[in-house]
């Protein structure tokens, strides 16, 4: 079974979006360089960000997201982002009627079912859990092995929290990855067991 990594781009004050779900300048780092991050060539980052992010993306077998993110992105048009093989959507509602029946999106009710499905699909590859409310729930349930953050130099003051509504203490190890890119600091921490 692969490791479980909670991931997201986050403001220095701990938010993944503002109160209106707008990400503002959080993702400026994805257009702040001259090295294409994907085949489209639209996303260009620094060499340091490319080497770190590309290696991470290539390890991911499945990403787990909440229904809110799925709805906001319109399900990425039925194609998982970043070349990911499968998406698991935590939702009390089923797949939208008539929505891309061939798309590798799996709708499950609850975080336990989501993690079971994600680990089944990922095999020995990484299960990525999107930061936010669902990510925080999965962390609180003890499923997360590592926390990965792309910290952007912006302060929101309020908004959607990286760890969602987690209200208990969780200890992390010292960061084992610290990489500076343009407009971003890539950090990775193991969860202390």
UniProtKB/TrEMBL annotation:
InterPro entries named among the record's database cross-references: DHFR-like_dom_sf, RibDG_C
One BP annotation, GO: riboflavin biosynthetic process
One Pfam family it belongs to: RibD_C
Domain of life: Bacteria
Gene3D superfamilies: Dihydrofolate Reductase, subunit A
Gene Ontology MF term list: 5-amino-6-(5-phosphoribosylamino)uracil reductase activity
SUPFAM superfamilies the UniProt entry points to: Dihydrofolate reductase-like (SSF53597)
Domain Bacterial bifunctional deaminase-reductase C-terminal: 87-173
Protein name, as recorded: Dihydrofolate reductase
Native source organism of the sequence: Actinomadura namibiensis
